[in-house]
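Consider one such protein record:
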Amino acid sequence: MPDDSFVVLLKGLYRPVVDGPNLGLSMVDLNDGSYSTTSIYHVRGTPGNQGQSKPIGTFYVQFEGDAPLCAYHIPGGSFAMRFTGSDFVLVDDGAGGQFLEGTFDLTVIQATGIYRPFVGGHNHMVDKLHFVANGDVVEYCFCFISRP
């Protein structure tokens, strides 16, 4: 089981979720057409591969909506979060795209497995999201997740 906090890295190209798995989270419907997905890598405190060379799980996110949700599926269970705040800027990438650079705050609203004690906890994301000129979206985001 993770300690009171852990860190993961979201990294890679986002793809739309076409046939999402059932994560056991009633608040998240991965098949409603609103989610995109990328890979999760170990940084500190999670079960699974201890290096950053192979993904340990999958991240799902809604980019639109009044109160977007996201879900993490990593060894030991899954958890859902709601975005609650942000502080970011958009920076021209010099090639027709933009970087979103900044932070996001989220609250853990539902969890399964070993992550149940994290419900009500916090996630502080430090993000560098690249909106490429060709329409691709590439993630590089550290997530600092803690119990309530």
